[in-house]
Amino acid sequence: xxxxxxxxxxxxxxxxxxxxxxxxxxxxxxxxxxxxxxxxxxxxxxxxxxxxxxxxxxxxxxxxxxxxxxxxxxxxxxxxxxxxxxxxxxxxxxxxxxxxxxxxxxxxxxxxxxxxxxxxxxxxxxxxxxxxxxxxxxxxxxxxxxxxxxxxxxxxxxxxxxxxxxxxxxxxxxxxxxxxxxxxxxxxxxxxxxxxxxxxxxxxxxxxxxxxxxxxxxxxxxxxxxxxxxxxxxxxxxxxxxxxxxxxxxxxxxxxxxxxxxxxxxxxxxxxxxxxxxxxxxxxxxxxxxxxxxxxxxxxxxxxxxxxxxxxxxxxxxxxxxxxxxxxxxxxxxxxxxxxxxxxxxxxxxxxxxxxxxxxxxxxxxxxxxxxxxxxxxxxxxxxxxxxxxxxxxxxxxxxxxxxxxxxxxxxxxxxxxxxxxxxxxxxxxxxxxxxxxxxxxxxxxxxxxxxxxxxxxxxxxxxxxxxxxxxxxxxxxxxxxxxxxxxxxxxxxxxxxxxxxxxxxxxxxxxxxxxxxxxxxxxxxxxxxxxxxxxxxxxxxxxxxxxxxxxxxxxxxxxxxxxxxxxxxxxxxxxxxxxxxxxxxxxxxxxxxxxxxxxxxxxxxxxxxxxxxxxxxxxxxxxxxxxxxxxxxxxxxxx
Amino acid sequence: xxxxxxxxxxxxxxxxxxxxxxxxxxxxxxxxxxxxxxxxxxxxxxxxxxxxxxxxxxxxxxxxxxxxxxxxxxxxxxxxxxxxxxxxxxxxxxxxxxxxxxxxxxxxxxxxxxxxxxxxxxxxxxxxxxxxxxxxxxxxxxxxxxxxxxxxxxxxxxxxxxxxxxxxxxxxxxxxxxxxxxxxxxxxxxxxxxxxxxxxxxxxxxxxxxxxxxxxxxxxxxxxxxxxxxxxxxxxxxxxxxxxxxxxxxxxxxxxxxxxxxxxxxxxxxxxxxxxxxxxxxxxxxxxxxxxxxxxxxxxxxxxx
Lengths: 640, 305
Known about the structure:
The structure holds two protein chains of two kinds. Chain A has 21 helices and 28 strands. In chain A, helix 15 (about 480-490) packs across helix 21 (about 620-635) and helix 17 (about 515-535) runs parallel beside helix 18 (about 550-560). Chain B has nine helices and ten strands. In chain B, helix 1 crosses helix 2, helix 2 (about 40-55) packs across helix 7 (about 195-205) and helix 7 runs antiparallel to helix 8 (about 265-275). In chain B, strands 3-2-1-4-6-5 form a six-stranded mixed beta sheet, with helices on both faces. Residues about 280-295 of chain B have low confidence and may be disordered. Chain B has helices spanning about 10-30, 40-55, 75-85, 95-100, 105-110, 110-130, 195-205, 265-275, 295-300; strands spanning about 35, 65, 90-95, 130-135, 150-155, 180-185, 215-220, 225, 240-245, 260. By secondary structure, chain B is an alpha/beta fold. The termini of chain B are far apart.
């Protein structure tokens, strides 16, 4: 066995263990990813790093020597790749198929290496492994130079926001440690990375197999004056240290309420530093307070920095829950609900534009839809492709709409508040990873203004609880008639109300909309928004719209606090409504003079569980109105 | 701002922050979480992190010990004390079938682990309806664990499918699951053995005294040094317990756990010995070796941690 130096522990361990431990408690932690295929010697390089940093024990070495002879690809020499090929399935295939994490440490740092495979599922795996990395090692076979896959790896590393790139020109032993070969590869690579916006990189000539320029400068490359790989890994700046210099952001992960006297907001600080007394703003509500304490089991802290998991208490009793972001009051992140994002698709089922997915960011989970992609990116040529969807391992740029505003940062500034995953609502699979590029201009300049007169204050002044009575049913079913009666009764009782009627709204606010499915969806969305504003003003709102689609009625329901949305299904059979035909519309639709008419050539999806159902063949409008008023007055909570 | 100097976090502080984040995330998203507590040093660290994560509240979930009845006596003592000190409920599960059949490490070999631990764990999770279980496994322990996710999904019959695990990006863990499915969560995924020891030292965490060397009755068998912990230990003809100064690098069922001869009686002595040693941690456990190099992966597919 040519290369098997024995494990030689640090002399200080034996001489003075306490001094050694004191010295080693203060290491920093660097996470990096290695990119390349088995052919580039990636597993060999990682095996070598573990071996050279004394992470391989005698029994493991014995097993390795044994395995090397049996299934190794290096003849009688140690096959370091066997150290890092984990699953039985991939051992049989001779390739790695997933992301694996390895650990080693030197005198200065602990390292976590994300090892990703070079073949199938490459994009998905590399993006996953790179998402937490500070640095990427891009491996090149010195005999082959810059290849398509080198470009792909570099592009992906750059895409995921890795600031430190190491170009590891490997297998230098096989080109006779030739300087000209190395210089040519570096020049080729420099030309390429400049074109994709990578600001700089560190190139190192090495041999994972022989150990050149891994742990120490190699005698075989006297012409190379830069650092050995480990030396370089020990010295680069960590992302967490850069994050500490930015404004404070704490995504609230968990509200700790052991009793009525304590309310702590727990989370991992995404950026900045915090001290007791600092002014903070809670997003998206925009309310401000100050930090009272930074609570920990070892006593209150005087300061906390990015990368720490903390529990804060505030000086004021303000609303703040999981998914909110506590930020520096004078430099808060933006809140928006429409974004331009770069999306990496990771599921076998392709993207369905318009379908609602869960979107999870540092700032919580919301419902979101992805618009049709603007383009996809060919990771090999970096060309922009025109596409209608995104499939497994595709990367594309698309607009993402969330169902409510979330605090965010552009991914380039903050991975925690700019990165998100998409989750399929049915299978629960993680189907995509996304990076927010920026929010769309229409939502960019609209901030949530914190208003002192709250919706509760509005309602209290009117001595009522706001409600939205959402009447739905076929044309001619009797929605407007009943809603009108209900409003008269409420008015007589001294209640403050407003009736939004379908026909009336279409003469004004929704004058620009027709009767296609898309326009109907928009019609109902606008009415829902108006109803919500009126409910915020403390009113009892009545809406009388066909509102044929369940999804949009549910959307309107989701805009309001629980219990405030009362769905009234005016259930009149089509035949009865058509026989009444008060406005003569059914006759027009039947004769083909009116297209997209609900019940005739456009569907109506009846509510599955309406709060109130009115069967107009059994009940008069007067009786129904009486019952509805009773229903909502009966469930009104007393005003406190 | 008068103090522009930003404190750099050490690797232990970053590992601690990451683990606490994982613990909190599960509590925020799971319906009924539980912490699997095996009384070893990794469990001790995991429990300590849970106390920190939810302070001043006690950790909002119970501890579950899937017991084999064959642990060291000192482990049972610390188990009960640790739960009491943390203010947490302790659930102990014994597989009734293993109990009825008298399954033991002397007569039943790998069936002992399979019935008491693997089956016992599934039974306990089903019995209490836990949908998320924290385990103290680390990625550095064994090759097949290097690819394990932090959130590891199990089907309704507790199987692990290495090809159907979800990608984990940034600090975003997807904890959504269908009814009946469950998650194993490994907050110590990125810790190494040395990190665990350094953290125990830094945080002054109480661990089972068996990790420290002391004179103990032992017999040598099949190249392993076994401790005679109680009178259930079956001595072979000619075997006489000999008092040796020993300690343990890992703890399990006492008749299956090999000791090392050692004089390391303090934490720093133990760490010193670990750093000077030349064999890996799991070598003391019979479980990894009984079916060749793919044995851990197979056990994991069947539901073992």
